[in-house]
Amino acid sequence: MTAIALTIAGSDSGGGAGIQADLKTFSALGVYGASVITAVTAQNTKGVTAVADLSPEIVTAQIDAVFSDLNIAAVKIGMVSRQETIAAIAAGLRRFGKQAVVDPVMVATSGDRLLRPDAVAALVDELLPLALVTTPNLPEAALLTGRSIAEDETEMARQAEAILKTGARSVLVKGGHRQGSEATDLFSDGNTIVHLPAARIDTSNDHGTGCTLSAAIAAGLALGRSLVDAVLEAKAYLHAALSAANTLSVGEGRGPVHHFHRWW
To answer: Do the Cβ atoms of 72 and 6 come closer than 8 Å?
Structure first.
């Protein structure tokens, strides 16, 4: 049976993040990708110049169309900037009895704010309780918990614990924003904490890393992997995509990772 994963996220006109990165990741990992678009961004490797949110009604219609026909094995949620959209997505997931990989996209790699302040509470209250795993980076974990950005793994663990209290079944706090030769992520499900170190890769082509990682986790789940195995395989895939990113020449700013590094 064909493994199918769904991404619910915004469109990146530059192709490096969002829906485009998610579908590339699904395809690279042998999973058929479906999509529900929440917003359209005017975006390239240098930044975001405009954002147009789709109505909650069309988001709901897309969710109903996909779930009523396709056998969705895993769901990934990315950029959702409005509380009305978050409510529509949460209602859809509950209607079809689904949990999701939730990437709380709040700030783009370029530094542009993508989540409205009034939507943060809706994300915490509505989406995180439906998260099989949520994947905040350090600034996002700080925003979700109201704490300072973690400077060590002890504080990362404290913030993971606080995020678990929102109802998320597990959390992967991404440590890429810390300095040093290694970038260590921290996974916690409330019972077990796993430290996931990886050598830091010297590249400025890191646009879409968060989207790619969460989509790769969803792809692994669609293929029947356990959650921990899906996280480990996703990290390995992203590390290879980052390692090959300098072979790409896309745009004048922060270029994308190389999703299809295994083929070209």
So the answer is: yes
